[in-house]
Amino acid sequence: xxxxxxFRTRLQAIREHLDGLDYTVLPRMSDAEIVAMMTEMRSxxxxxxxxxxxxxxxxxxxxxxxxxxxxxxxxxxAAAEGRTPSQGIGVVKRAxxxxxxxxxxxxxxxxxxxxxxxxxxxxxxxxxxxxxxxxEQVDQAAGLFLDRAATTPPGQLxxxxxxxxxxxxxxxxxxxxxxxxxxxxxxxxxxKDRRLVWGSDGEGSTWFSGQLPDLEAQQLIGTLQAFxxxxxxxxxxxxxxxxDKRAEGHxxxxxxxxxxxxxxxxxxxxxAQRMADALVDMVGLLGSLDKVPAAGGQTPRLVVTLNYQDLxxxxxxxxxxxxxxxxxxxxxxxAGSLRRMCCEVGILPVVLGGESQVMDMGQERRLVTGAxxxxxxxxxxxxxxxxxxxxxxxxxxxxxxxxxxxxxxxxENLVLVCRHHHALVEPDRYHxxxxxxxxxxxxxxxxxxxxxxxxxxxxxxxxxxxxTDRTGSATMGKESARTETPGSGENSAQTALVA
Length: 499
Known about the structure:
The chain is α+β, with helices and mostly antiparallel strands. The protein has a domain at 3-189. It has 18 helices and 14 strands. It has helices at 3-20, 31-61, 64-69, 73-81, 85-98, 102-109, 115-126, 135-149, 161-168, 176-192, 214-247, 253-267, 271-288, 308-315, 335-341, 370-380, 419-425, 453-456, and strands at residues 195-200, 206-211, 303-307, 321-326, 329-334, 346-347, 350-352, 358-361, 365-366, 396-399, 414-417, 437-440, 447-450, 494-498. α11 (214-247) runs antiparallel to α12 and α11 crosses α13 (271-288). It is elongated and about 90 Å long. The chain starts with a helix and ends with a strand. The relative contact order is 0.06.
């Protein structure tokens, strides 16, 4: 059997052995056996990935798909494997880096280094000044990179490039002046290439893409991580507070379990989800502190356009809602989101004619002013949900008697709740849900949250609690909760809600 036939035969044998693996035996294995099998298969998988890259690079160098299919390799992979053309080209480039140096390629084929390490080493070897290095020096550099691969993640190997070059060819290493010039040029390119773009995915989400120079990116990443860690600390503190309250007898096991399950849904957020929430929290904090600069004479805002009667119907849950006019176009908004928007936004009545011409525009009415917001933070200090320790600057202002039900925007009718608990306490039009609700103590004027009735029966009842109604109207008369509604005489005209 010649070498070519042997290669083909062994490859077929690998396929047959893979087909013959019986994964149903895994439940019968001990933990040690499962770990051993996992380790062995992952090592074999790395070697197969490396082998595929080596063969891919060979096909590229031979222009094999051009000859057999009249198609460049990148496009061939895109068509044959369901990739995009750019992904196909990426596969070819990655294979070229991995297979570039014989010593690195052989180490990856034997399983001594991962394909990710081999690719990273190939990329760094490509940055060396080959015109000034002998083959022996390049080979020596490859060996030094392989030594470091045992203890260094692939992404960090680039940090060793300068030191390795100084070791194998000090005469070719850049001088301090050259290095300073390189860093300055790199910074200049990064500043020039900075960008941030976004667009709608058509499914209710907006995508973002971009890049920043390293210095500015680290500032942003550090701030996002700080917000994320702040959330993690709040969750740990909340869990401890719940345990302490149960141990001290202030809450029952049933109440503890209910609150703990709710907390676990937040603890289960992925790092990517936490970073997304951190970005939203950052923007919300800037807005609450009135730190968002004006552009074109006004601060950034969302505009929801709908018939005035439809606005109230939407806020009361009678219809779906309206349309937000944002940077990515018109965005349908559901009633629940619209109700929460109305807690801290500005309302600007705009009377539109039959062809949507602006006929009249009233004065913007800010629902929660900076002064009210600061007073809320002093009074509530954090989310008022029992055991929740999300700090005030990351909370949202919530109307006890809803704005859409003519509740006033006053300190007595507002509380701070975190994003998660805001959704839990937002009441519906007919109070048909058995949910957490907010009441205000008639003596201290301090708000507190009461549990759902199905949970409340498991808890010791506080004095006077049974006299408090579901919406908190026992402590705030409905008449005193009424405010003048903008544009109340224009039910037949359209109104724009501006946030």
